[in-house]
Amino acid sequence: MPLATFKGGIHPPDKKELSKGRAISNTKPPKRVVIPLAQHIGAPCKLSVIVGQEVKKGEVIGTPEGFVSAPVHSSISGKVIAIGEFPNAMGRMVMSVVIENDGKEEWTSLKDNPDYMKLPPEELRAKVKDAGIVGMGGAAFPAHVKLSPPKEKAVDVVILNGAECEPYLTADYRLMIERPQDVVEGLKVLMKILGVNKGFIGIENNKPDAVEAMKKAASGESNIQVCPLEVKYPQGAEKMLIKAAVDREVPARGLPMDVGVVVHNIGTATAIYEAARYGKPLIERVVTVTGEGIKEPKNLMVKIGTLVSDLIEECGGFKSEAAKVVSGGPMMGFALYSLDVPVTKGTSGILVLPEEGVVHAEDFGPCIRCGRCIDICPMGLMPSMLSVLSEKGFYEETKEYNLFDCFECGSCTYVCPSKRPIVQLVRLAKSLVKP
Amino acid sequence: MDKAKKEHQLTVSVSPHIKSEETTSRIMWSVNAALLPATVMGAYFFGPRAVFILAIAIIAAVLSEYIFQKSLNRKISVNDGSAFLTGLLLGMNLPPSVPFYIPIVGSFAAIVITKQLFGGLGFNVFNPALIGRAFLLISFPKLMTIWKEPTAAFIQFDAKTTATPLGILKEEGVAKLMEMFGDNITLYTQLFTGHRAGSIGETSSIALLIGAAFLLYRGYISWHIPVSFLGTAALMAWIFGTKGALFTGDPIVHLLSGGMLLGAFFMATDYVTCPSVRKGQILFGIGCGFLTMLIRLKGGYPEGVMFAILIMNCFSPIIDRGFRTKVFGAKKEIKESKK
Fold this sequence. Notes:
The complex is a heterodimer of chains A (435) and B (339). With 435 residues, chain A is an alpha/beta fold. Chain A is built from 12 helices and 17 strands. Chain A folds into 3 domains: 23-103 and 281-354, Ubiquitin-like (UB roll), CATH 3.10.20.600; 114-278, NADH-ubiquinone oxidoreductase 51kDa subunit (Rossmann fold); 361-432, Orthogonal Bundle (Fumarate Reductase Iron-sulfur Protein, Chain B, domain 2), CATH 1.10.1060.10. Chain A has helices spanning 121-130, 143-146, 171-178, 180-194, 208-217, 238-246, 266-278, 308-314, 372-376, 383-391, 411-415, 422-432; strands spanning 24-26, 32-36, 46-47, 54-55, 60-63, 72-73, 78-87, 93-101, 157-162, 199-204, 224-229, 261-265, 284-290, 298-303, 322-327, 334-335, 349-354. Chain A is globular. The model of chain A has no long low-confidence stretch (mean pLDDT 94). With 339 residues, chain B is mainly α. Chain B has 2 domains: 24-143, no CATH class; 164-318, no CATH class. Chain B has helices spanning 2-7, 24-34, 36-71, 82-92, 101-115, 128-139, 165-171, 174-181, 184-193, 205-218, 224-240, 251-256, 260-267, 278-298, 305-322, 330-338, and strands at 147-148, 161-162. The radius of gyration of chain B is 23 Å and the shape is globular. The N and C termini of chain B lie far apart (62 Å). Residues 1-6 and 332-339 of chain B have low confidence and may be disordered.
């Protein structure tokens, strides 16, 4: 039987072999961390510490403002040495708290509550919210918001996204191999909060051992199903995953909730389990440091706020051919202009790419209308038209070609034989017209 | 860490950070390579003169592009193989007996008028090689319709003048064709190998099919246009192929003669001038097949592939508009709004 999937998509080399065999290891305790108060989609946090203040691990340093927001906690114990605007991975200046490590590793309070599954859904949801959990696949959307569907949207399915379709990244893969039980527990918490009894774990089939591990961990749970998915980018995009796992089509410009589905990432699920059971806030995450330009690729448990330069050092430094450092995966990640930017809740990987293969923007040619991008666009768009219209300045006209349905997965740009920066032209048009 | 930073200037660019190995020039050179078997067969059947014509067409095309771009201070793009391809295709579409200035005039019309004046690669409305040929056919109607018998002897210069199978079919009917070739089997075999009068690169069906198989296998062309083109043409040949009687025509003769295969696999599939949406390509192919047979059976010319493709080229943009792809999730939206 063919594996579940969606229409379109591409097959970039997955390059996961660089880091997939490396068990998750802890980094050296960072000397200092830079923790941005805006790490999520939504309102930035309000500062709740002052310079000179001693903080413990897990102490709140930023309180959420508004519903779509998530608190920020200190990831180490130590002293606040500076508060100010520091660059984040996207190059924007954001209000951040700099904390110097005192090496004591003191926690605020961490209580094991083995009976967490007996807690009522509201209390579990509050725990997720207080732990500052956001979508850890990259988008960093506050998790509790997705767990509070409006009454008119009847949610009946939770899907865990273990596709990890971005090449190179192996953070979720390692979690599924090393902590499958925690992933399943996290899913159960999610299902309890949402009151649903159908849970799916979608995993791309290039990780058969992860599929096996998850199947084994979920074997006692009759309402949890592990679905192997065809290996194809962007299999892990929310809408594509939902189509593949439960064959529902999220309406254009709609949300998964519109078809009764909530999707969470594997990393998010483990964080939710830890929050529910121990009240542990999201202060660390698994980051894959990999790529042909790094000496020792690794999967690291990293404190939020650790600088990328520390991670590079932890992995033996650059090889001489290193040319580009990307935060996230190669398809949708951001190229870093400086290594002095912090790991945030949404950082799934740090990718060091060699000079070879770096395509420079000025080298692109005209659209030859070959139609490759149209064939593979997972959203059924016509990227060729979007790119030509945007290039020539016909921004309003791009809306006729459903500009705002593009979620910038980059598949079109990957396949384009003229090396046109299609996604960038789409972003340009998006920034210049109103939806 | 400072050391590492000094050693490395980080490249910053927009996502995605990896790209496929496919390039425009790799595609163009692959199509050139796919035409090699037919080119070799053309040289085999029509001798050194054919080789000269092909070479002149290619050189003239590449030079025209180079000089045009140089004189307008544009980026020189002759290395991408598309001008080479235009020259080669034009040469393959010429009778082997034309004087040597013919391919020069044709390549100039193809490259300068059809391609560069419209904005260069990607912006031309019509297939350059076909406009080049149409230009020549209209400007030099006599020279462009003198056909030589294939000699299959590379040194023999003076081959007899003859008519193409389609010409015979048009002027004298199917009976005469049979008389010339003997029986059905011989006729098909000759058409299949390419032992017949015609343009340099169009005669050998087997060679063209080998090249087409390569392109299909590599995904450089898809089945949509060739299948709908040839399917429609075959259907029409079967239904209307015999004068005065329906459903008795011979589709095989029509498919294997003239420029049908060269056109369906190598010219109608030109990315720039055909629709880019697959469903639209089927309509485009049907249009090509229909117009080809309409011209062959009812028009003034024995062959219709060239004009059929050129006419359909005009419709490509509007076909793409009409067959715009459906956005993921759009169906649901419509259903909901109906409620």
